[in-house]
Amino acid sequence: MNQWYLSAWFLTGSTLSALLCAQSIAAQVVPDSTLSARERSQVSGNPNFQIDGGARRGGNLFHSFQQFSVSTGGSAYFNNAADVQNIFSRVTGRAISNIDGLIRANGTANLFLLNPNGILFGPNASLNIGGSFMASTANSINFADNFQYSATNPQSVPLLTISVPIGLQFGQNSKGIRVVGEGHSLTAQDPVFAPLIRGTTQGLQVPSGKTLALVGGDVALEGGTLMAEGGRIELGSVEQGYVSLSSAPFGWILDYRNVPSFKDIQLFQGSLVDASGMPPGSIFLQGNYISLRDGSVILLQNQSSQSGGEIRVNASESLEVSGTTPNARITSNLISQTLGNGNGGGITISAERVAVRDGGQIMANTFSSGNGGDLTLDASQSVRLIGVSPVNPLATSNIAAVTYNSGNAGNVTVSTRQLTILNGGVFVSTSFGPSGTGNSGNVTVNASEIVEVSGVEPIFRQPSILSAGAGNAGAGASLTINTSRLVVRSGGSVNTATLADGRAGNLIVNASSVEVSGQVRGSLNRLSSIGSFARLTDVILQQLFGLPPVPTGGSGDVTINTGRLSVTDGAVIDVRNDGPGNGGTLRVNVNSIVLESQGSITAETISGEGGNINLNVRDLLLLRNNSQITASASGSGNGGNITINTSSLVAIPNENSDIRANSVNARGGNVITSVAGMFGIQFRSQGTALSDITATGANSALNGTVQLNVEATNPTSGLVELPTAVVDVSRLVAQGCPANQGNSFTITGRGGLPPTPEQQLDDNAEWQDRRRLTVAQQTNPAREVRSQRLDGSTQTLHPASDRPITEATGWQVSPTGGCYYP
Questions:
Q1: Which pLDDT value is given to residue 499?
Q2: pLDDT band for position 201 (50/70/90)?
Q3: What domain range includes position 219?
Q4: What backbone torsions phi and psi does residue 44 show, to the nearest 5 degrees?
Q5: Half-sphere exposure at residue 531, Cβ-oriented, CA atoms within 13 angstroms
Q6: Could you say which DSSP state residue 774 is in?
Q7: Digit-coded pLDDT (tens) for 654-683
Q8: Which pTM value belongs to this model?
Q9: How do the residues of the chain divide into helix, strand and coil, expressed in percent and rounded to 5?
Q10: Are residues 437 and 475 in the same domain?
Q11: Is residue 230 domain-shared with residue 343, that is, in the same domain?
């Protein structure tokens, strides 16, 4: 939705709100005459309306009104019999329904309110009914016996209509439903480690285990609150079409497969949709453009030992989650939280585009022994995570599955064309908490076109991250990326990591090309990186997340399968361990690798054993401008192992690009290469300012091994058999060489010996003009000279006239661009 349309939508909505509030003074519940005289609705009282009568058919009770509005502080009381199961109320007039008071009914009856003109629930609107509540701007409610209880074409109720409702029929350009309120009262004792605390909130609420559904055109919650404890909340924005209904133990299930087009759902000014409970319920949103702004929250908390519940969002165009409350304590959020022993509910999103920005979040967390729910995104066009909250830079825009206790975090899966993470956005599954033991969930990214992770947030310079991590004793999980292009730049990071005791998971990249470039300089240099590591963290993050000063977990393994790998401008691909643990293994299967301008591939450790690097390069491995391939240990561990298989290993000698398997205090590692050609780099016992291959240890006795296997050239390959016929060379040599007879004799020097095949070519070449200077000789014009060619033929030469030779003193440019001597 473009910005103009969005502004127009809100302007129209605000005007509608003002109009509806102005009409609240004249709020009325007025019956119509569409039902038979003895079955018409009977209304008494004002502003507290009591509604009696109606057409009773089995367990169904039908009411029909010319107007239906409840003023502030008023009420509408359906005085139905206790055995009534469903109350169907329609508005056949042309006025909207403005509800700013109480709607109540007897017993456990479900209540349907149908007004095609539009419905507004004000800040004082509330419900006191025993069953489910459905408000809709559909034209009619359809029944299994083909009866339509229509508000636009009202008819009496047939005597035999005792069947159940099966659907809502919408006309063209259906009108909207709006819920206005003061916003939620959610709080959090700790912004990181504590779940949201649900306060007492005014709004629309149904009994535990029941359904609360708003199904109309544009659906807007402006600080509005919807609650169904352990029940089902349904928001449907239908432009036209037919919505199927089916009964369920918790109320009603809605099916939108027969709806050709949808309208928009908007939650702003701290709105809340909450189906938490013991066990939790479910929340479903179906629309075209769906947005959560200003700290609005869709919440599902599992507070029991039973598993269940889900949040499902279907947007035919896009979903956007952005911003925070004014104090930045609560972010706009689609969130599932596990508080009991039961597993948490999952979050499933289907849209063309998903955007999470300015601190918005989509999260599935567990704070208990129950496992967190899975998080699944299917966006046919794009998923974008951008930036942090402008009010609180610690509130990052993120899509995350996190465990803070012994329960495992859920898996995160995204399928899209483009995944973009910018300016501090975070896409992660991880574990946190000093006492937590739960494992993080697997992260799988399927992006048919590109995955881009770029930039840092501007205040604390925290990078944009795509990760599966471990921040406590639990193990990290795997991160798998399948894409055409993977681009990591300007400080972005793609990794599996441990920041505490758990081992980092494995990282697998399958891509046509992988590009890692750049860094962000400042007080904290942020290198663009792909890898698996156990890394020291900033003091701020240690305090914020309860992390140890030194991680003890091991690094995971990294496997990259790609056509072309480029690492430039200080970027790095690494398996690194800054603690006592060992480094992982880095495997790259690729057609070509280019390392340039301090680009590096590393497997380094501080105290543990150095990691291993295996490079299988079909064509070319090129190192330029101080680039590195290292498997070194700077503490007490031994150096790692580097294995390189390639057709060509190329470096520039004086650019100091190195391959190292060194150890500062222990034994050096091993370097083994199998190459068809190696240029510009060679083994040396110690590092120099040239391009070196080294495996040094603490002393010469502890040096590692370097084994360079270069394919030998077969001198007989490619030779052809010479003809056996011998030519008499004396016939090819002329006996004389007079210049005036068309002959010439040239001796061309080669300037020394040619370079060997193992030397690089020198790009400094001088230009020489080896053309013979033609000088006309003075001859007798009457004289003809016959000359014999080498092949025995003859020709007749006519000597040219004399022309003196003049030394050139400069040149000039002709009008046509040519140069000539004056």
A1: 87
A2: confident
A3: 173-393
A4: -135, 155
A5: 30
A6: P
A7: 999 999 999 999 999 999 999 999 999 999
A8: 0.84
A9: 5, 45, 50
A10: yes
A11: yes
Task: Please state, in angstroms and rounded to a whole number, the distance separating the CA atoms of residues 200 and 203.
Answer: 10
HEC secondary structure over 316-328 = EEEEEEECECCCC
Please, is 414 exposed, middle or buried when counting C-beta atoms within 10 Å of its C-beta (0-12, 13-18, 19+)? buried
SS3 557: coil
Contact in structure between 530 and 491 (CB atoms under 8 Å): no
Q: Residues 474-491: what's their mean pLDDT?
A: 96
Cα separation, 496 vs 585, in Å, equals 13
What phi, psi does 70 have (nearest 5°)?
-125, 125
Instruction: Assess whether 224 and 148 both reside in one domain.
Output: no
The answer to whether the beta carbons of residues 692 and 682 sit under 8 Å apart is yes
Among the candidates 348, 365, 393, a domain finishes at 393
* 738 within some domain: no
Nearest CA to 307 among 273, 334, 254, 346?
Answer: 346
Q: For the purposes of burial, counting CB atoms within 10 Å of the CB of 20, is it exposed (0-12), middle (13-18) or buried (19 or more)? A: buried
How, if at all, do strands 600-602 and 628-630 pair?
A: parallel
403 part of a folded domain: no
Nearest alpha-carbon partner for 114 in 221, 237, 216, 29: 216
Is position 520 within any domain? yes
| Residue (of 166, 136, 143, 141) closest to 154 by Cα position | 141
Alpha helices in 289-388 (DSSP H): none
Count how many residues are written for the chain: 822
Distance CA 583, CA 577 (A): 5
Report helix, strand or coil for 146: coil
Instruction: Choose the final residue of a domain: 596, 617, 651.
Output: 651
Question: Contact at 8 Å (CB) between 135 and 119?
Answer: yes
Instruction: List C-alpha distances in Å: 62 to 81, 89, 109, 142, 165.
Output: 12, 6, 12, 13, 12
Residue 379 lies in a domain: yes
Same domain, 164 and 184: no
Q: Look up tokens 């052809």; give the residue.
A: 720
SS3 label, residue 701? helix
Residues 55 and 148 in one domain: yes
The total domain count for the chain is 3
| Burial zone of 369 (CB within 10 Å; 0-12 exposed, 13-18 middle, 19+ buried) | middle
Instruction: Give yes or no for residue 796 having a pLDDT over 50.
Output: no
Contact 54, 217 (CB under 8 A): no
H or E element: which one contains 246? strand 232-248
- The pLDDT of residue 792: 45
* Average confidence (pLDDT) over 216-231: 98
The alpha carbon of 750 is separated from its chain's Cα centroid by a whole number of angstroms, namely 60
The backbone region for 100, taken as left when phi is positive above 0, alpha when psi lies in -120 to 50, beta otherwise, is alpha
* Angle formed at CA 741 by CA 740 and CA 746, multiple of 5 degrees: 85
- Can you tell me the distance from the alpha carbon of 127 to that of 225, in angstroms, rounded to the nearest whole number? 12
**In terms of Cα–Cα distance, which of 151, 172, 209 is closest to 34?**
151
- Please name the amino acid found at residue 364: A
End-to-end alpha-carbon separation of the chain, Å?
72
pLDDT of residue 218: 98
Same-domain status, 85 and 180: no
Which of 10-24, 245-259, 567-581, 638-652 is predicted with the least confidence, judged by mean pLDDT? 10-24
Q: Are residues 144 and 197 in the same domain?
A: no
* Strands of 608-716, DSSP E: 612-624, 628-630, 641-651, 658-660, 670-679, 682-683, 692-694, 705-710
What are residue 37's phi and psi, to 5 degrees?
A: -60, -40
Give the list of residues 6+ apart from residue 710 with CB closer than 8 angstroms, or none: 673, 675, 676, 677, 678
**For residue 279, is the peptide bond before it cis, meaning its omega torsion is within 30 degrees of 0?**
yes
Please tell me whether residue 266 adopts helix, strand or coil conformation.
Answer: strand
How far apart, in whole angstroms, are the C-alpha atoms of residue 614 and residue 672?
Answer: 10
Spatial CB neighbours of 242, under 8 Å, sequence gap ≥ 6: 142, 167, 168, 169, 170, 258, 259
For residues 29 and 91, state if they share a domain. Answer: yes
Alpha-carbon span 603 to 639, nearest angstrom: 9
| Tokens 């329609």 found at | 90
